[in-house]
Prior knowledge:
Strand order of the largest sheet: 1-4-5-6-13
Structural class: alpha+beta
Number of helices: 2
Number of domains: 2
Largest sheet: 5 strands, mixed
Shape: globular
Oligomer: single chain
Order of helices and strands: HEEEEEEEEEEEEHE
CATH topology of the largest domain: Rieske Iron-sulfur Protein
CATH class of the largest domain: Mainly Beta
Amino acid sequence: xxxxxxxxxxxxxxxxxxxxxxxxxxALGALIGLGLVPRRAAALEIRYAEGGTAPDxxxxxxxxxxxDGATIDKKHQVILVRFQGAAYAFALxxxxxxxxxxxxxxxxxxxxxxxxxxxxxxxxFITGRATRNMDRMPIxxxxxxxxxxxxxxxxxxxxxxxxxxAKVTL
Length: 170
């Protein structure tokens, strides 16, 4: 059973659910724009990018985001987050069963679509089946670039000091 496919993958309702989720997000955005719903402090702008790699192919570099938000780099499996004066790099996959995480704008958090594990923008675990925080990647600042070592991760339960130190203060 461990290798059984997800029964929801081929479900025709998956597209409908995605449409309804997107429509609800647009409606919420309109209400926020009209000032009828307060904007959450944890709201992040989601961007998609592909980080350039260093000549040796080991590191990915990204421009420092001008505002709080998340940059998703699917090619290198990296989530780059600027949040409350710090930058973090996370593995795109949930630490529970490696499903790609998604940003839930209305709730101000990341969530695994498979088992609903939830995480704060700084990668801290909130609730769900996962047993630890999102996996952080080594990150450093070089001028106006953030450089991420996408080949290594810090797991909060195995290397708490490495995990805590994997951030850049902006």
